[in-house]
Every structure is written in C-alpha cells, then in structure tokens.
Amino acid sequence: MKGSFEQRVAVVTGGSSGIGLEAVRLLLRNGARVALCGRDEARLARAVESLQGLGDESAVLAQPCDVLDKASVQAFAHAVEARFGRVDFLIANAGQGRVASLEETQDEDWVSETRLKLMGLLHPLKAFQPMLERSDCASVTCVNSLLSLQPEPHMIATSAARAALLNLTHSLAQELVRKRIRVNSILLGMVESGQWRRRFELRSDTQLDWTDWTARIAAQRGIPMGRMGRPEEAAQALLFLASPLASYTTGSCIDVSGGFSRQL
Ligand code: NDP
Question: What angle (nearest 5°) sits at the alpha carbon of residue 64, between those of residues 94 and 160?
C-alpha cells in the first residue's frame, strides 16, 4: 500500500481518537502527510503526541475544528492548503452515535443527529473540494454504519440519519465522478473505540472488565465473529477505498461488521 500514499496528503476529520486516529497512524506509516481535526484541543494534543516516531513531525497538521461549524472547517482547509498545498484524500470520520429509542428521542435530537451525519460530510467536502479537484487521485471516504441498511430500534435516529448519509454519498459519487473524485464508504458494525470506552465507563455491571464486557455485547448482538472490530481493522478498509488501489471503485461500500450484515 505504501506506494499509494507517498507524497500524498490526507485529511482525517475526527482524527484525534478511535478509528480516525488509527487511520492517521496507518497513513503516516505508509508515507502520507496528514491533517487531522477534532473539537477537544487536549485530546488532539494527546493524539499528536502518540504519533511521535511515525515520521517527520512536519508531516502532521492538527487543528481544532468542529465539522458542524462551517467557518471552523474553512479555517482548517486554509491551514492545510498553507502547510501542504494539496489534498488527495478526505476521510470523513468525525461523529458519534446516539443510543435512544423512539420514546427517548426528542424532536430536536432527530434534527441534530441528521445534521451531524450530513453536514459532518458536506462542510468538509465543500471546504476541501477545490484542492481535491486538483489531485490526480482524489477520493472522499466516509465512515458510515451498517445501521444505514439495517436499522436498530435502540439507535433509531442514528439509523435514519445513517441511511440519509448513505443515500447522500451515492449521489455525491455520481455528481463528483465528473470532477474525478471518487466517493465511497465503510459500513461499520461495532468497533472498539472512544464511544465504546465511554459506554464502558457508564456500565451497570462494574464487575466485568473491558474484554468480557465487549465479548458479552458481541454475543448478545449475535456478531458471527464473536467480538467487536478493532479500530485498525476499520482503518485498513478506509485506506484501501481512499487509495488508488480502489481506482475503479466509486459509489461503493465495504462492510466491516464481523459478518453482522444480513444484506445479500
Ligand atoms: P471516537 O469517539 O473514538 O472518535 C470520534 C472522533 O470524532 C473524535 O476524534 C472526536 O473528537 C471527533 N468528533 C466528534 N464530533 C466531532 C465534530 N462535530 N467535529 C469534529 N470532530 C468531531 O469514536 P469512533 O472512532 O468509534 O467513531 C468514528 C466514527 O465512526 C464516528 O463517526 C462514529 O459515529 C462512527 N461509527 C462508530 C462505530 C463504533 O462501533 N465505534 C459504529 C458505527 C459508526 P472530539 O470529540 O474532540 O471532537
């Protein structure tokens, strides 16, 4: 994969934790220069610290940025242009899920969940598109969820918003093919990361450690592989779709759910 990323620049939104941070690590190991963002400055600083030894310090640009704030995303894009002068790969990863049933979901939650999923892609896309259009191997790769095809009642608003995002990425793939930008997604099941760590801290059964707790969830949900995915497993699929290795693939998805998908 190395040859696909050398001299290239990737932007990873939500690159300060979990899947995004693993994608940043893998990109750096493969010779890319990487710009990452997240809202929490301290978390971003810790992430950058953890990247030491993975290459030249000048290969990393980290900037606090909320993907829902258009001005902040534009400022991030200006900083990336000033530092690297180009962008080849946009990885739209920033976000989180909402665990709530129909009864627990307020009107404003439907709106904010849909806004996060759609604008969390559209703001970065608009800001970075001019640079992507100048690349000879441009791609946009979205982190989406299997919930987009297989909704769960305990995550009802997230499922609906994920379906909207999947629909949008298919339209974008059609639209942007004319500009030579590929658009693809990964569809996740359950992946060990910051979101699950936070839920673990709030668990009712405090006797269970992380391994037992995640294995129990995987068993309860009926994940055929019997475990949650690891962030690096999601990152590997992301990098494949982002890279020229997937040069004839657009409007497509890779399932990263340990066999949980019931779709043919
Ligand atoms: P983490 O919580 O570990 O990472 C989320 C990252 O996104 C953090 O860097 C966070 O930083 C950033 N982020 C969140 N909201 C924003 C925002 N508005 N603007 C900029 N950055 C933001 O979770 P995961 O690695 O699990 O999540 C990555 C993506 O994968 C998310 O979109 C999530 O919904 C999706 N996903 C994850 C699944 C899983 O099982 N882990 C399943 C299905 C989908 P900060 O909070 O500092 O902004």
Answer: 20
Ligand 1 atom showing the smallest separation from residue 96 Cα: 34
Strand, coil or helix: what is 241?
Answer: helix
178 C-alpha to ligand 1 centroid (Å): 30
Q: Where are the domains of the chain?
A: 2-191+231-253, 192-228
Distance 245 CA to ligand 1 centre (A): 26
- Give residue 21's pLDDT: 98
Whether 258 and 192 have beta carbons less than 8 Å apart is answered as: no
Give distance in angstroms: CA of 193 to centre of ligand 1.
9
Is 2-191+231-253 CATH 3.40.50.720? Answer: yes
With bands split at pLDDT 50, 70 and 90, how would you rate the model's confidence at 165?
very high
Predicted model pTM:
0.97
